[in-house]
Every structure is written in structure tokens, then in C-alpha cells.
Amino acid sequence: MASKLLQIKAISGHAGVAPGANMSRDYDVCKLVDTTTCIGCKACEVACLEWNGYDFQPTTFDNTYQTMPDTSWNYWNLIRFDEHVNEDGSFSWLMRKDQCMHCEDPGCLAACPADGAIVQYENGIVDFNQANCIGCQYCVTGCPFNIPKFNPTTKKVFKCTLCSDRVGAGLEPACIKACPTGCLHFGSKEDMKDLANKRATQLREHTAHQNAGVYDPEGVGGTHVIYVLHDINNPEKYGGLPKNPTVNPMVRLWKGPLKWIGGLGMIFGAVGIAFHYLRYGPKEAEIHPGGDRERN
Ligand code: SF4
Ligand code: SF4
User: What are the TM regions of this chain, as residue ranges (predicted)?
Assistant: First the structure.
């Protein structure tokens, strides 16, 4: 079961076809976060730490209910709290579960030069393999969601794995299991999109949230973590969720055309040296009248 649910689709820095690529996928997995029913209890934060074996870290109080100012290499799941003043002057908490979005077109994987440091499975999960990570942090610049975080001690980068170990064994992610309100759901992408669209329609038809909608950004090919937002037109209000995230074109350039141009340059250089050698032969020492030797 594990091998079927975690068939590899793409590998960072890997020449040739990824092992297991083009095998049939059972289904795309997806996590649905309904921000409109999140109560900010942070059970998902605790579950994430416990399942992945990390301890709680000291934090700083900066006038918010957030546990940490930001996610970190050993804190992959953070509920962001934003105070929002509505048009009628009333006040709302906007709470969003922040973690890796498991992009269909992951900028982290596109940017990574290390063979096998980042793996995308056929079911949509994007996973890091720290054993192969060289600590260059290109994945950090490639991610439009500011997710991969560097551990300065081990010089490796970490992020949410979407509990690939649990999912590979047919289980739901730990955060989903812990959520007490039903704000988190897990299933196939198709089912989660369906559920999310129904919830957004319900909000538009029966509440004051006329702009409710589903966040599944096309710029990264869609994501395997999707949100229902009260206001789909302003995702930035939810802890800086980017409106139109895309993979930085420079990442594509240096991994695409520039890489090929560099490779061609090396080939032409080697051919030039070979021709020069065949035409002029090896360098020989010249003897000057004074007896000095000079290389030409
Ligand atoms: S959110 Fe960032 S780290 Fe996660 S898959 Fe997308 S690009 Fe990679
Ligand atoms: S730091 Fe990021 S980009 Fe660099 S090797 Fe590790 S995973 Fe790949």
C-alpha cells in the first residue's frame, strides 16, 4: 500500500526520468482548511510537533495569539492570527493554518540542484530528503510561500511533509486527526475541491460573506493544501497568503536554458582545446641564447 500511495513523480537535480515516473496514480491527496470554522485552538500545532518528534520552542510575545512569529525548521505548522476590522466597523479574527502548500508545480523542487533532496510523489506530496540536502538554500528562494526553513546546526532544510509517512500507510495527516471542529479535511483533490466549493457557496448564500471562495492558486498549478476563505479577493489578509503565487522565472532560467548554455559552453571549450592540440601539438620549452628556458 505504501509504495502505491507514494509513487515518485519528480526528483530535484536528477538527470533522466525519475524512478517510478508515469506509473498510474491512485489519486491526488489534498488537505482542505476551512478558515471560517477554525477556532485557533492549535491542536494541529501540537499534533504536528508530537508526530514529528519535535519539542516546543521558546517564543516571543508580540501582541498576538500566535504561538510563534513564524514557522521554523522544527515548527512546520503555525496558526496565523490576523485582527481585521470589517467595513461596518466590527472586528474579526482571521486565522489561517500555515504550512507547505504541496504545490503541483513546486518552486522548491525546480530550484534545488541536489539529486534526490526534494521528491514529489504522484499523489501530490512534496517531500524533502535531508540526507541528500547540500544546504545551499536555493529551495528557499524558489518557494513563493516562504516555507522551507534552514537549520543552521545541521545545515539542512526542513518543512511540512504532509505526513507522507502516515499517508503512505493509508492514514490521514496528524493535524487532521487532531482538529476538533472539522475545520480540517483530508481526501482526494477532487473530493476536497467539491467540499470546499459547496462550503463557499453556502457562505455566499447564507451569510454576509459575499466574497467567500476557494484558494487553489493556478500560478503554481494548484496546491494540495487548499483553503476556504471568507474573502477570496484578499488572501493577503490571512497572514500574507500571496494572491497570485508563481515560481520565480529566474529559477526556471537557471535550471533550464542557462544550464544548457553552460553545458554547451563546456563542450565547445573541450572541443576547441582538442583541435588546438591536434593542430599545434603540445607546448615545448624554448631555449634562449642566454640559456634561459621559456614555455610557449
Ligand atoms: S509551498 Fe514552497 S516548499 Fe511547499 S511545495 Fe510549494 S514551493 Fe515547495
Ligand atoms: S538547501 Fe534546499 S535547494 Fe539546497 S540541496 Fe537542500 S533542499 Fe535542495
Answer: 260-278
Count the neighbouring beta carbons within 10 Å of the beta carbon of residue 95. Answer: 23
Residue 109: name the closest of 152, 159, 72, 52 by CA.
159
CB under 6 Å to ligand 1: residues?
A: 100-103, 106-108, 126, 143, 145, 147-148, 159
Q: Using one digit for the tens of pLDDT, what is the confidence trace for 9-47?
A: 888 877 666 655 555 456 799 999 999 999 999 999 999
Q: What is the pLDDT of residues 162-186, one digit of tens each?
A: 999 999 888 999 999 999 999 999 9
What class does CATH assign to 2-247?
alpha beta
Q: Which of 127, 123, 135, 33 is nearest to 78 (CA)?
A: 33
Q: Which of 52, 224, 221 is nearest to 123 (CA)?
A: 224
Question: Is the model's pTM score more than 0.90?
Answer: no
Q: Going by C-beta distance under 8 Å and a sequence separation of 6 or more, which residues neighbour residue 148? A: 108, 128, 137, 139, 140, 157, 158, 159
Handedness of CA 133, 246, 240, 208 (dihedral sign): negative
Question: What is the CA(132)–ligand 2 centre distance, in A?
Answer: 8
